[in-house]
Design goal:
The protein has about 130 residues and is of the alpha+beta class. It has three helices and six strands; from the N terminus they run E-H-H-E-E-E-E-E-H. It has one domain: Roll (Thiol Ester Dehydrase, Chain A), CATH 3.10.129. Keywords: Hydrolase.
Length: about 130
């Protein structure tokens, strides 16, 4: 499991004083950064990252407010042949406020096709396989 703490910024709030719902997907993407670094294997060009995002979903289960940090937890829920499901949670003040999933696909840009996840990446994904604590 990977963890990251984010500090909500004032401009991320809406008229009700809540963190805007569009912000959470960005936080979750940032929480997937260790996976991007794994698959980048030293490459600095994001266009060479052999991953594409096939699906993203977010459930908002509580209100998120400006003024308190948010803990983002990221883990691997399932690993398939060429894709894997990333499970994520956002916690504020000890309460679960959002949960989500992202489906990432191992993708060969030169062939414009998915491909089986190489073993060197699969092993690291398996180390982070399991349910996130509730």
């Amino acid at each position: 499991m990977y963890e990251l703490t984010v500090t909500p910024r004032f401009y991320e709030t809406d008229a009700f004083g809540h963190v805007n719902n569009t912000v959470v997907t960005g936080w979750f993407e940032t929480g997937r950064s260790p996976l991007f670094q794994l698959f980048a294997a030293g490459q600095q060009n994001p266009a060479e990252l052999p991953l594409i995002l096939a699906r993203v979903e977010v459930d908002f289960v509580g209100q998120i407010y400006y003024g308190s940090d948010v803990l983002i937890r990221t883990g691997i829920e399932r690993i398939g042949n060429s894709s894997f499901v990333v499970a994520q949670q956002a916690w504020q003040n000890g309460k679960l406020v959002a949960r989500g999933k992202a489906v990432q696909v191992y993708f060969e840009h030169d062939k414009q096709a998915s491909s089986p996840i190489p073993e060197r990446f699969r092993a690291e994904l398996e180390r982070n396989l399991g349910e996130l604590p509730e």
